[in-house]
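Obj.: predict assembly geometry.
Materials: sequence records (below).
Method: joint structure prediction, all chains together.
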Amino acid sequence: MKMLFAALGAACLSLSAGLALADDRPTDPQIAHIAYTAGVIDIAAAELALSKTADDDVRAFAQSMLDDHKAVNDQALELVGKLGVTPEDNPTSQALVAAADAKRAELAALDGTAFDAAYINNEVDYHAQVLAALDGLLIPSAQNAELKSLLETGYKLFQGHQQHAEHVVEALK
Amino acid sequence: MTLRHMNRREVIAAGVLLVASADAVRAHNGTIHVKIKDLAFSPQEIEARPGEIIEWSNEDRMAHTATVRGGWEVMIPVGAKATHVVQAGDNVDYYCRLHPNMTGRIKVIG
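Observations (raw structure tokens):
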């Protein structure tokens, strides 16, 4: 958890530093890549959870993450195809992936209720971090109206997932 | 049609329509339609009489539910419709269990 915060914190810091220089705000191709990557990361975490958990609530939650993020990422691919935008890899996407890889390795080493608790708590934190990035940087930086609109739907989705995760945390207690 | 091109009667009619749609939506032929799009119930608040049917239509690419805490739940799969027959005790707030930031309200009348 601390590791994820540190890595995401570093990503956010570099984003904030970037904000000071207007030219360094992410471009639409970079924003599309970051948003898509955020979904891919949660899909990978859900696949790990489905392979490990024996808890019905955790399983249902993970399946919902898998289905929802796949659906929205498909929608994102259709949109960038229509707009003729090629998502562009960037340091923020790379920092997100590095942090997620480290977290997934940490989770993979856990089993049973220890895994369930660590997975769900991380889902609460991860969704909160993505919400902060969407709200503070990605949505305000997006230039294309349709991309901005999809990001706003993405915001509602991540917010819903965060609250769902919080309910599962309560149910596990 | 732009406002400039509307005559006085049309402007008044449009105004009446606006006032009507601002009220909680009432049933049409015994069925109240609630659209789900972009993670929102629309209309968010409905009025219903016992025995009337609420029909949710899911236009999102993700599954949703209409769930009453400690009460009933309706599953609304992707692209599907699902119904609930209004009961006398259905003066309730409901939400989507999968996305709890989606909320709606049913007000029982009559």
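Conclusions so far: The longest helix of chain B spans residues 8-22.
To do: check interface contacts against the pulldown list.
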